[in-house]
């Protein structure tokens, strides 16, 4: 699966436009991450416990996005983006979305 944040894919032409696809996950922090994150935030700098959690959530949403596009018959996703919203304190939704297309080499 080719995935790009751009609206086109250099070296390829779009032969079929399928439509919007998405992948979503909802993740929550846990007591251990909060404790480690709290200590790291007092020290300052990068809060590794939360970075790890954010990266895991983005990867899960991305994997769901690719699976959705593949199920619809796409071989590429254009204009891919992430969005995140806090549903409640400590619970975050991460959405990956884009436009599913079929491309072929130009």
Automatic annotation (TrEMBL):
Entries under InterPro entries matching the protein: UPF0145_dom_sf (IPR035439), UPF0145_YbjQ-like (IPR002765)
Gene3D superfamilies according to UniProt: Hypothetical protein apc22750. Chain B
Superkingdom, taxonomy of origin: Bacteria
Ranges annotated as spanning the membrane: none
Protein family according to the UniProt entry: Belongs to the UPF0145 family.
Protein name: UPF0145 protein HNP32_001152
Upper taxonomic lineage: Bacteria, Pseudomonadati, Pseudomonadota, Alphaproteobacteria, Caulobacterales
């Amino acid at each position: 699966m080719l995935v790009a944040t751009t609206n086109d894919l250099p070296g390829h032409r779009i032969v079929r436009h399928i439509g919007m696809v998405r992948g979503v996950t909802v993740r929550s922090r846990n007591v251990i991450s909060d404790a480690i994150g709290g200590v790291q935030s007092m020290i300052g700098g990068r809060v590794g416990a939360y970075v790890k959690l954010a990266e895991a959530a983005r990867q899960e949403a991305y994997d769901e996005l690719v699976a959705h596009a593949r199920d619809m018959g796409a071989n590429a996703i254009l204009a891919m983006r992430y969005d995140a919203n806090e549903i409640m304190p400590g619970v975050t939704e991460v959405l990956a979305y884009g436009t599913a297309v079929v491309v072929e080499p130009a």
